[in-house]
Each structure stands twice: as C-alpha cells, then as structure tokens.
Amino acid sequence: QQEKEDLQGKLKLREHLSQTAGKSKATPAPSKNIDIEMKQLQCKLKNSNNEITEQSTTIKSLKNKVQEKEEWIRELQAKISRLERDLTVKRHLIEDLKSHLKASQENEKTSNETLESLERKVKALAEECSGKKTSIDSLKQRLNVSTKEKSQYEQMYHKVKDELEKKDLKLTKLESKMVETERAMTELETAASDQLHSLAKQSAEALETLQKKLLLTSEKVEEFKTFVKALSRELQHSIRELRTKIKKAKKMGKKACKNCLSQESVQLAASILNVSTTDLEEILDVEDEEETAKTKMEFEKDKEWLQHTQKLMEAQFPFASHLMDVILEKLNEKKKLLEEYSSLMKHTI
User: Fold this and answer.
1) Which of 21, 66, 222, 233 has a CA 20 to 30 Å removed from the CA of 344?
2) How far is CA 256 from CA 204, 249, 290, 339, 349, in A?
C-alpha cells in the first residue's frame, strides 16, 4: 500500500511536470521519456494491486481454515468431556455392583448357617424319637412279662389267695401306670410330629427364599458380565477410532510437509542422503508399509486383550483385581493415544 501511494504521488508529479512542459513548449525528447516512465509506473501500480488482491484472498482462506480447525478442536474437547463423564458413571456403577455382590454373599453365609442349625435340630429330634420308641418297646415287653406272671398267678389262685390278691393289687397299679405311660407316649408322639411338621415347613420356606436369592444373584452376575463385555468393546472401539484419527493426522502432516517441500528441497535431501529422488520416495512408501504392519499387530493385540477379559470373567473367584488391572491398562493406553493425538493436532495447527 505504501508503494502504491508512492507510485501515485510520482504519477501526480509526472502529470504536473508534463502539464508545465506543455505550457512552456519544451523540446519533444524529454516528454517522450516522461510518457514511458508514466506507463512503467502504471504497470507497477497494476501489479501491486493484483498482488494485494491475491494476498487478501489468501488471508481470507487462511482465516476460514483457522476457524474450521478451532471448531473441530471444540468438538473434540466436548467429546473428551463426554467420555470422561461416561467413565465416571461406569466406575460408580462398578462400585455399586461390588457392594451388591458383597451383601448377597453375606446373606448366603447367614442362610447357610441357619440351614445347618435347622438340620442339627432335626437330627436331634429324630434321635429323641428313636430313643422314645425303644423305651415304648421295652415297656411293651414288660407288659408281656406281667401278663405271663398274671396267668401264672391265676393258675396258682386256689393255692395262694393272699399272694394272688397282692399280685392283683400290683397288677392294677401296673395297668394304671401303663395307661398313664401310653397316654404320655401318645402326647409326646403328637407333639414331636407337630414340631417336625413345623420344622419341615420352615426349612421349605427357607429353601425357597434361598433359591430366589440365588436366582437374583445369578441374574446380577450375568448383568455384570454383559456390562464388562460391553465396556471392553467400547474401550477397544474408541481406541481404534483414536488410532485411525492419529494415522489420518500423521498422513495430513506428511502431505503438508510434502506440499511444503519444493523440488529443490527434495533434490537437496536426496543429495545429502546420497540417493536419487525416486529412491527417497520409495523410502517414504516403506514407512507407510511399516505403519500397516503396525496396525495389524495392534489389531491382534486388541483381540488377545478381549479374549483375556472373557477368560477372567469365566475364571474362579476372586477375579475383580485382575480384571480391574486389565481395564486400567487399556484406559492408560487410551490416555496416551489422546495425548499423542492432541500433540499432533497442535503441531498441524
């Protein structure tokens, strides 16, 4: 703009000089030189105007690119904040599931202890019933013996009346005692049967409640397994997306570098490395092949990681610490990839 202003001032001076020269009617040779200089200055003015318009268009395009990149960075930051929120929510869910598991395990222990105590009581009652049955059998045997004695006393009735009367009194006493004992035995049998029925009902109810609790715990464990599987898949998917974004950013950086490099700089690099330009391009292509091999290796590692998490889920208790270490390892990998991606984006910007 300053050059333009200078040129315009010079043009004005030249015009003024030409006007004064026309008035004074000077020689024609210097006026021709002035016209030539006027034309040169007008050409310079046109060139400077063209350069100014080109530079303004390039500035506008660069501003648009900067705005697009800033919007893209804002979107990425919003996505990162969303992912962090999802991670915190998932961690809280895992902690809640752990507390639920602990509570269910404690409930199982208490129910098992109550079942064992009930079984012991049932065994004790069964032993008592068997003992009472043996005592009843012994009483029956005694009754048989007493009836035999009674028959013997009846045969000897005529011989010994006094003894028979005494024996009769003893027999009546024994019979009354036997009736009382039989009544007591029947009462004991009825009480024992009632107790056994009530215990059987209680044990059946306790078993039903335990089965319901076991079903609930198994359903919760299945939900936890599906949650961990979904979380591991989401982690793997997000890491793959980050890797592809990093590769795209690297490719964009390489393309920008290639575009920035002129033919002279390529020839200079080839002369420094003591190779031809075609050899240098082949070396750059080999780096791309190494990148593809690296992506294959990363894909295989991700597969092995998923299989390892599934094996841990199917392993015996306790496996929570090992599973937590595996997931934390993947989260750290994701964190490193995010840092690498942010650094690449900063360099590209």
Assistant:
1) 233
2) 77, 10, 20, 21, 11
Helix (H, G, I), strand (E, B) or coil at 274: coil
Task: Judge contact between 167 and 150, C-beta under 8 A.
Answer: yes
Question: Which domain does 59 fall in, by range?
Answer: 40-81
Whole-angstrom distance, CA of residue 328 vs CA of residue 156:
102
Task: Answer yes or no: is 215 within a domain.
Answer: no
- pLDDT tens per residue, range 283-310: 554 445 666 777 778 778 877 877 777 7
Q: What is the DSSP string of 12-51?
A: HHHHHHHHHHHHHT--HHHHHHHHHHHHHHHHHHHHHHHH
Taking the C-alpha atoms of residue 75 and residue 56, their distance in angstroms, rounded to an integer, is 29
Helices 2-24, 28-155: inter-axial angle, 10-degree rounding? 160
Cα Rg of the chain (Å, integer)? 53
Q: What is the pLDDT of residues 163-217, one digit of tens each?
A: 777 777 888 888 888 888 888 888 888 887 888 888 878 877 888 888 888 888 8
**What residues contact residue 337 under an 8 Å CB cut-off, 6+ apart?**
239, 242, 243, 246
